[in-house]
Specification:
Elements: E1 17-18, E2 33-34, E3 39-47, H1 51-61, E4 65-71, H2 74-84, E5 88-91, H3 100-110, E6 116-119, H4 124-133, E7 137-140, E8 143-144, H5 145-160, E9 169-172, E10 175-178, E11 183-186, E12 189-191, H6 195-206, E13 212-213, H7 214-222, H8 229-244, E14 254-257, E15 261-264
Parallel strand pairs: 3-4, 3-5, 6-7
Antiparallel strand pairs: 1-8, 2-3, 9-10, 10-11, 11-12, 13-15, 14-15
Helix pairs in contact: 2-3, 6-7, 6-8, 7-8
């Protein structure tokens, strides 16, 4: 049974920490409206059996959506997903009727929507299971509402921007990557990549903004049924960062999710 901590909400403060255990998820359907400042959703669904948390999250998300729907159970959430097609789903993992992980997988079967998880749990095994199930980001409690809103905005922006295709020419942080010609350069200077480094970069790029697990990357790049994914990846990611990052010791493009995997940031901070 998960622990519960009382949450007193008098005023929604974007700088205040939200510390009660309650993981969340997000879905996109392509109905997101984009502005110069940020993307805004038509519908967001908040799924949490604790009313205080649900209402607090709902209130802080109202400026980002025309409609914010609520559900107390996994079954109710899946019904709403089928009918309302929310652009973003905030999902609590400890629901009374079914595990949040199962709800996450069910949402993924119904939609290509990204999923962000918020949780007080720090176990790497749980993070790995969630990312494997289709989660795109994981925020550990306690966290500030400002951080939460920033991550929601980031997911809405990524949902609005079409994913890179294999014919894309990608420009970010001074780097130019031509996926069709398989060429990479920085400020006109060619960067030579090995076959493995290119395949790794290509895989990360076409899933930009989404954390890929070590196993997912290992399967995509090496297509092996055996081996140690982390050992293979550590060496090649290090070499790739040396070639494409401005500061390889402080990478901005290829970001590590400790114990889980890596993601490519198309809009590095």
């Amino acid at each position: 049974m998960r622990s519960r901590t009382a949450l007193r909400v008098h005023k929604i403060d974007a700088a205040a920490p939200l510390g009660t255990p309650a993981p969340l998820s997000f879905a996109r359907t392509g109905r997101i409206v984009h502005s110069m400042e940020a993307a805004h959703a038509q519908t967001i669904l908040v799924v949490d059996d604790e009313e205080q948390i649900r209402r607090a999250v709902t209130e802080v998300l109202r400026p980002l959506s025309m409609s914010v729907l609520e559900a107390e159970t996994g079954a109710a959430a899946l019904s709403i997903v089928e009918v309302a097609l929310p652009d973003l789903v905030v999902l609590d993992l400890g629901l009374p009727d079914m595990p949040g992980l199962d709800v996450c997988m069910a949402i993924r079967r119904r939609s290509s929507a990204p999923v962000i998880v918020l949780s007080a749990r720090h176990a790497e095994d749980e993070k790995l299971a969630l990312f494997t199930a289709g989660a795109d980001d994981y925020v550990t409690k306690p966290f500030s509402l400002a951080e939460f809103v920033a991550r929601v905005r980031a997911q809405l922006r990524r949902a609005w921007i079409a994913p890179y295709s294999l014919s894309s020419v990608v420009q970010c942080d001074g780097l130019t990557i031509d996926l069709q010609r398989r060429e990479t350069s920085r400020q006109g200077e060619p960067i030579r990549l090995t076959r493995i480094e290119w395949r790794l970069l290509e895989t990360l790029l076409v899933h930009a903004g989404r954390t890929l697990t070590h196993q997912q990357l290992f399967d995509a790049v090496w297509a092996k049924a055996f081996g140690h994914p982390q050992q293979y990846l550590r060496v090649h990611v290090t070499n790739l960062r040396r070639k494409i990052e401005r500061e390889p010791a402080s990478p901005r493009l290829i970001v590590t999710e400790p114990g889980v995997g890596y993601r490519f940031e198309r809009d590095p901070p």
